[in-house]
Amino acid sequence: QEEASLPNLLVVCGDHGMSEMGSHGGSSEGEVHTPLLFISSAFEKRSGPLTQPELVQQTDLASTLAVGLGLPISRNSVGNLILPVLGGKTMREQLRFVHLNAFQLSRLLQENTPAYEKDPGYEHFKVAEKSHGNWIKLYLEGNNSEILLNLGKKVLKQYLEALKTLSSSLSKQVAQYDMYSMMMGTVITVEVLLLLLLSVPKALSSRAEFEVPLSPPLFSLLFYLMCLMLCAVHVIVCTSAESLCYFCSMSWLTAVGVMMLISALMCGILSAIAKIFENSRLPLKNLVVSSSSWSEIDVLILAGTIGHVLSLGASSFIEEEHQTWYFLINTLCLVLCQELYRNNFPVKECDTQHSTTVKQNFDSIWEVSECKNVDIPAAGNSKLCKATSSSEFIKGSDKWISLASPWIILICCRLLRSLNQTGVQWAHRPDFGHWLTSSEHQSELSFLAAVSLLMIFVLVQRRCSLVSKIAMALGLLGVYSYRAAIGNVVFPWQHDSKDISKGITEARFVYVFVLGIVFSGTKDLLKSQVISADSTVKSTGLWEVYSGLVLLAALLFRPHNLPVLVFCLLIQTMTTKYIWRPLKFDAAQITIMHYWFGQAFFYFQGNSNGIATVDVSAGFVGLESYVEIPAIFLTAFATYAGPLLWAIHLLCYLSSE
């Protein structure tokens, strides 16, 4: 009966507001202010005009709710009591509540500040506590005069002032940053960024060179002078710092190593800038020969990369990052289509800006040798005559497959987008994956899984040895058996899936073949490095390692996600044979295109930038209980299988070229 008579409390609040444009990630007044409403039968009904609502901090809510529920205030809370919530209490209860809050804040100040006694908030607390003692003496003496009421209001005001000062002091300590350590980290980051920017022109050239000139600066006088200067600054800062500094707490050997790194990077930047100025003074003839015009692919790669980096500045773009990658690879396919059509149906006439003599010579050479090995003086028009025309390289039916390949890739990407909804805004919408995983469509899922595993074998086995082909076939059969054992799919002769187990035996059966294939590939790689320098052996070894990881991905992927693996292999095969080799892209372009497709396939799997989409069940495949190291490895591999497989395919492609 006593519990039933207790009043109820309804608290309505928000974690952030919203601007007029609908944004909530900024610092405008509409975004940082949000309503806080307390509704309870314990409050007195107010009459008269509405007053301006009081402004409180979000941290004040925890202290107020703790006191209202009769619970101790959290030890590390820096909030104050919201006094209007306690307005219906007696003066003795109000003073008791604010004293508890002030005592908790003073204890927190003592734990975090050595000279806490000199803090103004602590001094105000002690004064208020002494006045509170005097008020209690009068109260116990039975004094009910107006003097007791006025003294109580005075003590309450002193407590509130002490609470405000204590909370402000503690909040400043929480927001106190280690500026020296942050500055050192920022300097290293900026130096590395500048070195990368200075190296980008060579890295994006046809030779794909990446040179960081660090060797000469390490032996220069400037390097040692900078080391001495930075070490002197480090000694001065660490000996005069009042608060604890992370960088100063490091050993002197580590600190000197960081100073040497900063000095070496700075000297490397100066050396790279000097080299650029030195090259700029070369004769114009050398510059014309070495320069090359940018193609549409180069412009797209640069604009897409910069655009993606800029999009990460907004939280909404991070939540829906998959849309950025889908757009980029679709645009990339269209540009590749344009390049293929241009190379398979070349125009025989050169640019009208050329002189008549050059144009006539170019046309005559085109008729004889299809524009082969022509030296055009104008470097800006080198695109007009490629060293080898892809129309000569691809003939017959392969030519038409090459022309259709970008459109086939676009269709594959569109199907994959329908398989898994991801992100935040549209993640709740039904997709093809949900339809497949429903119990009513288990037969359709089984058929799709079987066809997908068969396609995986067809696409992977072409460059494997005979032993690896057999191991791959048995491993993929084990994958289907594992999924049938745990009840995801059924065999044709099964009428139901009542005999469900953990599938530990079947999964470990597949692990044996994964290790066998990876071991076989590793053996070939070591053989190519130690015994013979045969590039064929090295290429085969890399491909077998890649095949073993494909088999592992097939085991860890859920059955409805196996088409993602099939389309990944199909797109890799088509782009390698019908796009990249005929168009003869350089290493930098191939690398960035692999990175783009890898990021897109990360989201095709159903992943997002939220941790809720991580499939933790992959960490328990083949394990009877939780084992930390294997579970972490399997979960990470299953999550990042898309980018990882594209990265390893890049190694296979570059080694074969």
From TrEMBL:
<dbReference type="InterPro" id="IPR039527">
    <property type="entry name" value="PIGG/GPI7"/>
</dbReference>
<feature type="transmembrane region" description="Helical">
    <location>
        <begin position="601"/>
        <end position="623"/>
    </location>
</feature>
<dbReference type="GO" id="GO:0006506">
    <property type="term" value="P:GPI anchor biosynthetic process"/>
</dbReference>
<dbReference type="InterPro" id="IPR045687">
    <property type="entry name" value="PIGG/GPI7_C"/>
</dbReference>
<keyword id="KW-0812">Transmembrane</keyword>
<feature type="transmembrane region" description="Helical">
    <location>
        <begin position="472"/>
        <end position="491"/>
    </location>
</feature>
<dbReference type="Pfam" id="PF19316">
    <property type="entry name" value="PIGO_PIGG"/>
</dbReference>
<feature type="transmembrane region" description="Helical">
    <location>
        <begin position="629"/>
        <end position="654"/>
    </location>
</feature>
<keyword id="KW-0808">Transferase</keyword>
<dbReference type="InterPro" id="IPR017850">
    <property type="entry name" value="Alkaline_phosphatase_core_sf"/>
</dbReference>
<protein>
    <submittedName>
        <fullName>GPI ethanolamine phosphate transferase 2</fullName>
    </submittedName>
</protein>
<feature type="transmembrane region" description="Helical">
    <location>
        <begin position="249"/>
        <end position="277"/>
    </location>
</feature>
<keyword id="KW-1133">Transmembrane helix</keyword>
<dbReference type="GO" id="GO:0005789">
    <property type="term" value="C:endoplasmic reticulum membrane"/>
</dbReference>
<keyword id="KW-0472">Membrane</keyword>
<feature type="domain" description="GPI ethanolamine phosphate transferase 2 C-terminal">
    <location>
        <begin position="397"/>
        <end position="654"/>
    </location>
</feature>
<dbReference type="GO" id="GO:0051267">
    <property type="term" value="F:CP2 mannose-ethanolamine phosphotransferase activity"/>
</dbReference>
<feature type="transmembrane region" description="Helical">
    <location>
        <begin position="179"/>
        <end position="198"/>
    </location>
</feature>
<feature type="transmembrane region" description="Helical">
    <location>
        <begin position="218"/>
        <end position="237"/>
    </location>
</feature>
